[in-house]
Amino acid sequence: MLEVKEIDVYYGAIHALKGLSLKVEQGSIVTLIGANGAGKTTTLKTISGILRPQNGTVTYKGTDITKVLPEKIVGLGISQVPEGRRVFSTMSVLENLEMGAYLRKDKKEVRRDIQSVFGRFPRLGERRKQISGTLSGGEQQMLAIGRALMARPELLLMDEPSMGLAPLLVKEIFEIIKDINSQGTTILLVEQNANMALSIADRAYVLETGEIVLQGPSEQLMKSAEVKKAYLGG
Amino acid sequence: MLEFSQQLINGLSLGAIYALIALGYTMVYGIILLINFAHGDIMMVGAFVGFYSITLLGSNIVAAMIFAMIACAILGVVIEKIAYRPLRNSTRIAALITAIGMSLFLEYATIFLLGPQQKVFPQSAFPLQQYEIMGLLITNKDIFIIVSAVVLMIILQFIIKQTKTGKAMRAVSVDREAAVLMGISVDKTISITFAIGSALAAAAGVMIGVYYNTVNPLMGIIPGLKAFVAAVLGGIGLIPGAMVGGFVLGILETFVSGYGSSLYRDAVAFGVLILILLIKPTGLLGKNTGEKV
Ligand SMILES: Nc1ncnc2c1ncn2[C@@H]1O[C@H](COP(=O)(O)OP(=O)(O)OP(=O)(O)O)[C@@H](O)[C@H]1O
Ligand SMILES: [Mg+2]
Fold first, then answer.
1. CATH fold label, A2-88+148-231
2. Range in A56-60, B64-68, B123-127 with the lowest mean pLDDT
3. Which residue, A49, A82, A109, B204, has most beta carbons within 10 Å?
4. B97 close to A (CB below 8 A)
């Protein structure tokens, strides 16, 4: 469904991604793990069109989207839950969800989808009028996920959704990711929490300083000595 | 008490005008962090469009205001596109200097095209009428200014709070990158912000023309500066702040010139600016957090 082919991404003189390639099959959960500064966020931003690769291509459902504007990429079915949640902090929970559906014209269906987000995240439903900047970290993460779902994505990019959350909440978030996937949304999940990520993913890529150093089915990587040592605490 | 109420009415008219101009400053600042120094001059262009619609086309005051608003909406969009957009990723000081350049350009282009003299509305354009209500003298000018300003502010609030476009404007001003991820076009949203802010300034320009009966190419400078003070006073980037700041400043100024001396009238605004920067730089309605709104 998505193929990233040998992309080079720079920030000025910094060579952040060095010929990175990866593939995401329709219906799967693929995870991209790596340490701080490895280039995970950069990869997702490039797929979303916010950053432009110097070389290489991003292909989605057979079409080259490398040069498509970021605001158009959402319309093609790729949504992102950005790192650090990035909810519209001065706007209400409901307004944030409406922004997620910005490109949609089917008002009735949008209202139904808002209800189904509230069904999935009852705590958001109770706080629909609350200004989102005053939500707890976990609630903001749920809002960021709900907001991305409002676009009805076929491919959902998630950047460290477990960051800064209590263990119990982390479990809950991973359950939600599995559930979203089981309802037909393909997922590319960026994580530092390699344990959890590998446990729900079908395939995994390990990124180090802008390069993929390991890849394969998750069970296989979970057993790999290298991964155990570097990412699984022993 | 009567004297007080009388001053209050005068202050409300003036404050309404400041508030309308301040809204444009604050909306533009909220979305691209630029103090648009040409904003007062856009107001001046609006006043001229209003003037010529009345004198050349014979339109009534409401039609003149609508013409001015449409013309300045277009002008604002064009200015943003040619002057500010190319600098969007450069330093803020570069954009600020460009805005000052744009301000001078509008002033001197108008002088070049129309001459430096002020132009006086014919008496028939807006015949002055005075009403006495419970001892208070109210002119039809005051009523026109206050009513149309309030109507415009209600429409603005509706756009910002209820429409998709208004919500997108708020989203872009909170987090541009996240807004793009929603499919919001940042360029389009910034254009709309300039269009609305400039249209409000144009309405204020026509009001000032009505208020003083004249228009001239440099008429945007002082009200522009004062509206900027009003925006800072209320909290720059905050829409309710611009409204509150505009009215507070207008009323304050009227009282100072009414009870003290009109010589101090212009000093009030700048005294207020200095005080607010010293005591509460985020403005009356601002929260004391960070720089961005
Ligand atoms: N805006 C920027 N300007 C310059 N360098 C940047 C910028 N953003 C990221 N980088 C650099 O690019 C590299 C990759 O950053 P990136 O944010 O993609 O890492 P990451 O894997 O997401 O890390 P983390 O786990 O901390 O989020 C880092 O070396 C970082 O310093
Ligand atoms: Mg990151």
1. Rossmann fold (3.40.50)
2. B123-127
3. B204
4. no
